[in-house]
C-alpha cells in the first residue's frame, strides 16, 4: 500500500477514516479517551444571549482551552481572569494535572503570563509577522 494523493477535498469521510485509525492506535496505548467538554459562558443579563466565554475539553488529565473570547467592552476589568480561574477550578475537580492552550501574539499572551501560564513553545511567522505561543499551567 504505497499509493497516495494530495487533495483539498473537504470530504468528512476522509477525516473520519484518518481520525478513527488514530483514535484506535491511541486507545491501544493509553485506554479510552474520556474526553469531556468544558464551557464557561458569559451571557447578556437582559437577553440571555451568549456574548463570550471559553470552551475546551478535559482529556487524559489535562484541560485544553480551545476558544476564549470576551467582547472589548468586557475586557480589562478582571472578568477574563475570573473565567479562566473557574475553568481551572473545574479542571482540578475533574482530576486534571493542569491546563494548556495557544494564543497568537496579537491576542493575549501577556494575559496568560499574568495568570501564571508558562510558555512551552512558539511558532514564529504563524501567521506571517506574528507568533503562535503555546502555554501551560500545572496545578
UniProtKB/TrEMBL annotation:
Q: Per its UniProt record, what Gene3D superfamilies does this chain match?
A: 3.40.630.30
Q: Which InterPro entries match?
A: Acyl_CoA_acyltransferase (IPR016181), GNAT_dom (IPR000182)
GO molecular function terms attached to this record: acyltransferase activity, transferring groups other than amino-acyl groups
Matches recorded under Pfam families: Acetyltransf_1 (PF00583)
- Name of the protein described by the UniProt record: GNAT family N-acetyltransferase
Give a yes or no for keyword Transferase in this entry.
yes
- Ranges for domain N-acetyltransferase come to 1-139
This protein's UniProt keywords: Transferase
Q: Which PROSITE patterns match?
A: GNAT
Superkingdom as given in the UniProt entry: Bacteria
Amino acid at each position: 500500500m504505497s499509493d497516495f494523493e494530495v487533495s483539498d477535498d473537504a470530504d468528512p469521510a476522509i477525516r473520519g477514516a484518518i481520525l478513527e485509525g488514530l483514535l484506535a492506535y491511541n486507545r491501544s496505548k493509553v485506554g479510552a479517551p474520556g474526553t469531556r467538554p468544558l464551557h464557561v459562558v458569559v451571557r447578556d443579563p437582559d437577553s440571555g444571549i451568549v456574548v463570550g466565554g471559553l470552551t475546551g475539553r478535559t482529556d487524559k488529565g489535562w484541560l485544553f482551552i480551545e476558544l476564549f473570547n470576551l467582547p472589548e467592552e468586557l475586557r480589562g476589568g478582571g472578568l477574563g481572569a475570573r473565567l479562566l480561574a473557574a475553568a481551572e477550578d473545574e479542571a482540578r475537580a475533574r482530576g486534571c494535572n493542569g491546563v494548556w492552550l495557544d494564543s497568537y501574539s496579537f491576542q493575549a499572551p501577556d494575559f496568560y503570563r499574568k495568570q501564571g501560564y508558562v510558555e512551552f513553545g512558539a511558532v514564529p511567522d504563524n501567521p506571517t509577522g506574528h507568533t503562535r505561543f503555546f502555554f501551560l499551567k500545572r496545578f
